[in-house]
Amino acid sequence: MTTSSFSPRGSKQEIESGTAFQPKFDENGLIPAVVTDAGSGELLMVGYMNEEALRRTVETGEAWYWSRSRGEYWKKGGTSGQVQTVREIRTDCDQDAIWLKVDVAGNGATCHVGYRSCFYRAVRRNDDGGVTLALVEPEKVYDPGEVYGRDQG
Amino acid sequence: MTTSSFSPRGSKQEIESGTAFQPKFDENGLIPAVVTDAGSGELLMVGYMNEEALRRTVETGEAWYWSRSRGEYWKKGGTSGQVQTVREIRTDCDQDAIWLKVDVAGNGATCHVGYRSCFYRAVRRNDDGGVTLALVEPEKVYDPGEVYGRDQG
């Protein structure tokens, strides 16, 4: 398999309107990846990729990330079975963010806490100006105590 | 108006399962915000907030960001009219990402290049292993030459 190569950053015009993929990695060598369910469109998670993780994702069609907490490559689902098959990859105007549309294998959940999406809580502002979180995705797909592994970012 | 205050970071258990909003800002004081259309669910953009921008967003119900390129607060739509009215705010398991569901005012577009979404291009892998971008949102909502201002991140 030929190694996919990304282009060096060009002019603002090239980045915004061109056809060369010129992803911008931050000072830590990372680019954020927004992950949605290819079928429902639901936001599942936000992960981070370095250049090699992005290359593996493009080449294998399965999502790879860089775990900032563990400092290692992280194939989503490697432990949990919640493998993400990539249906489409997009980038934004500045090419400093990635959007993955995926199908989730295994038990269909994405979050290591047990929910389908990592975004299971909403921010609510109270009358007194305080801010609290409310659970808006009440049902867990699985009990993380049973399959909890190292499959988290 | 009482100033909204966020909670200091607690234990892993508190962060993942609690009701206290304990957003994590990175070493630059920023947290990424994924922005989707409250009606269609379409991914519109990824922006960044510092604590004050997040506070303004929570308190005003309109999206504020921190512009990394300009080093200033950025009320989305302040120049373009593409104001984002926030319908729901969520956070993820680690509380290190924000999800805004918004209604977009003005001409309904989000991207300063003229498209409805900033994610108007898909990453395609060619037979030779090369990677290029393909325009997947062909119609611009407006000509940015006419209203192009400082309303971009």
Automatic annotation (TrEMBL), chains A, B:
For activity, the cofactor(s) needed are:
Mg(2+); Zn(2+)
The residues listed in the UniProt record as binding Mg(2+), with positions renumbered to this chain, are: D92, D94, D96
Pathway, per Swiss-Prot/TrEMBL?
Amino-acid biosynthesis; L-histidine biosynthesis; L-histidine from 5-phospho-alpha-D-ribose 1-diphosphate: step 3/9; Amino-acid biosynthesis; L-histidine biosynthesis; L-histidine from 5-phospho-alpha-D-ribose 1-diphosphate: step 2/9
Q: Which UniProt keywords apply?
A: Amino-acid biosynthesis, Cytoplasm, Histidine biosynthesis, Hydrolase, Magnesium, Metal-binding, Zinc
Q: Where does the UniProt annotation locate this protein? A: Cytoplasm
Which family does the UniProt entry place this protein in? Belongs to the PRA-CH family. In the C-terminal section; belongs to the PRA-PH family.
- The entry's protein name is Phosphoribosyl-AMP cyclohydrolase
The beginning of the lineage is:
Bacteria, Pseudomonadati, Pseudomonadota, Alphaproteobacteria, Rhodobacterales
* Name of the coding gene: hisI
